[in-house]
Amino acid sequence: MKKKAVVLLSGGMDSAAVVAIAQEQGFEVHAMSVRYGQRHTSELEAAARVASALGVAGHKVVAVDLRSIGGSALTDDINVPDAGTGDAIPVTYVPARNTIMLSLALGWAEVLGANDIFCGVNAVDYSGYPDCRPEFIAAFQALANLATKAGVEGAGIRVHAPLQYLSKAQIALEGQRLGVDFGLTVSCYQADMDGKACGHCDACQLRADGFAAAGMADPTQYA
């Protein structure tokens, strides 16, 4: 019997690659997406497409209202900046988002009897968010093993971030090797209702640069 794992699936290229990586490692993948009050839902539609295409064992969408606290260009009435502008930690950072998402994944993992959680955080080609750093992942794993029945009485919880030290080009190539159709994914911070990308936000620029550096055609649909 395959070991179960919960994989956070946003609908972007990184999390799609992580689903395929977890499957290659022999896990039965249970994908979780979070409707957190993001300004567009095209990434959730993309997550459903990716989950179906990769044949995951289950796909759950959980709702959390982070828009009610605001503070981010992704959940509040704040303009999304062009790539390379703004502060060291940009306004697209969503306060506590990764902490909350990992906590939800942790809860589902306990219910499923899974000891492994996968996420697509990256500390190389990313937007500078504090909750994408290796220190954060290590700290959350420590918390998970203190705060759960699985951690206290069971085999413990492991948090995997297989893309942590990969460039966007390396992620693109890894996904290609594993047969991920990146054309199904949406990475743009302000994609339209059809999932078409703006082409000039930080996420779009990182994605486009990654495909270019990998020598791959960019499958992104731009508005």
UniProtKB/TrEMBL annotation:
Binds 1 zinc ion per subunit. Zn(2+) binds at C188, C198, C201, C204. It is an enzyme of class 6 (ligase). Its cofactor is Zn(2+). Its EC number is 6.3.4.20. Signal peptide: none annotated. The keyword Electron transport does not apply. InterPro entries: QueC, Rossmann-like_a/b/a_fold. This is 7-cyano-7-deazaguanine synthase. It comes from Stenotrophomonas terrae.
